[in-house]
Amino acid sequence: MAANENSVLIERIHMVHKSPCKVVFAITGGGAEIIGELLRHGSGSATVLDAVVPYSTNAMDRFLGRKPEKYCSEKTARLMAMVAYQRALSLSKGNGPADHEVIGIGATCKLKAANEREGRGHEIHVSLQTACQTGVSTLELTADRTREEEEKVAALLIFNVLARHCGVPEIDFGNMDDGRKKEEVIEKYKSVSEPVGNLLSQQRCSQDSPYETHGVVRIGLNEPKAPRESGKIRLVFPGSFDPCHRNHMFMAKQASKKLDEPVYFEISLTNVDKPPIDFISLSQRLDSLKEYKDEAFMGGVCLTSAPLFLQKAALFPNSTFIVGADTINRIFDAKYYSSTADTPAILKHFKEKNVRFMVFHRKSCELYIKPDVLEFCEVIPVDEYEDDGTSSTEIRKTYENKQETLS
């Protein structure tokens, strides 16, 4: 980097340190030198709460709490940013920063490697997660650079994502192309309302607090159909809906017809064993539900931070939950919650909340319902509904493969 470019970077770094923003970084594959730049010029603790570099696949799997579908992708960068954001919330709690000043940045890169195969693409994905916004910047590197030059580009792109959020001018690194074709940074940003953001910024529900809840945010995909009793939700379909597909809709339609109630689709932003849902992913899931907004059974969407059914029952008392066979097998299993909840306590909680479960078969899934659980369940016979094997996972893979082919 030229001396004048370096002086500009140092100046902008000091401007970032003067902002109130607090950040946790998670960086892999390249660009990690930006961590050193932010720390070596003084006042780094004003901005950086923590930084991790999960470089091996094992380290990445542990950091995310799961094995990603691809290690270098926009989606993985968003997952990294979400985990970093949760870490930032934890580290800043009680230390003064407002929720909107706490951010997580995740970056995953595929840069020049020794003896790499011909045609291997070089790419950088940098994601930002805040209380009410998810953003991602993607740069496909097409110019021929050394590994060191690509590292600098990655570091500057990571810095620019941080600088923009801090209200600091970004660094123009287009001059590094030396007259070669300038690559384009592709950006996606999705924002949500403060009530939705609050669901994410609240303390994550844990298995050690299976009854803890944080409220519901209703979203109308269309003009909501009025429940039979004004303001009450009687029929709830919990799920990730990533994406929603025809089997979900068939279950909803059948349940609505049986109970003569509109269906409210519930999505928990937080999960027990996975990072919370970011707002780009949430937007995609809501779009898949909006395709069915004119269906007579559609009531709307409820967003929560209640990954456990004990929590859902507290949020939606006197309601019926639409579930599949694989789900009902674990709802009443104390191991699914924690040592603080045993089977009698679970049964008592559901009885007190007056909740029931409408159970639909899934293809190749055995249904085991104990006698003391049957009083809470209505099982839909196989001749009325049988899952045709459609999977949200397969739909996602097909979509992502098409996107890769188009790019």
Q: In words, what does this structure look like?
A:
The protein has 407 residues and is of the alpha/beta class. It has two domains: 3-191, Maf protein (Alpha-Beta Complex), CATH 3.90.950.20; 194-398, HUPs (Rossmann fold, 3-Layer(aba) Sandwich), CATH 3.40.50. The chain has helices spanning 3-18, 33-40, 57-64, 74-92, 147-166, 194-201, 246-259, 279-290, 309-315, 325-331, 343-352, 371-374, 392-406, and strands at 22-28, 48-52, 102-110, 122-129, 133-141, 185-191, 216-219, 235-238, 263-268, 298-304, 320-324, 356-360, 377-379. The protein has a seven-stranded mixed sheet. A six-stranded mixed sheet has the order 2-1-3-4-5-6. The relative contact order is 0.10. The model is unreliable at 401-407 (pLDDT under 50).
**Tertiary shape:** elongated
Oligomeric nature of the chains? single chain
Order of helices and strands: HEHEHHEEEHEHEEHEHEHEHHEHEH
CATH architecture classification of the largest domain: 3-Layer(aba) Sandwich
SS-based structural class? alpha/beta
Mean pLDDT: 86
Number of domains: 2
Q: What are the segments in which pLDDT stays under 50 over at least 5 consecutive residues?
A: 401-407
State the CATH superfamily name of the largest domain: HUPs
The CATH topology of the largest domain = Rossmann fold
Proportion of strand residues: 15-25%
Main sheet specs: 7 strands, mixed
According to CATH, what is the class of the largest domain? Alpha Beta
Give the helix tally. 13
Radius of gyration: 24 Å
Tell how many strands the DSSP assignment holds.
13
Strand order, main sheet: write it out.
Answer: 7-10-9-8-11-12-13
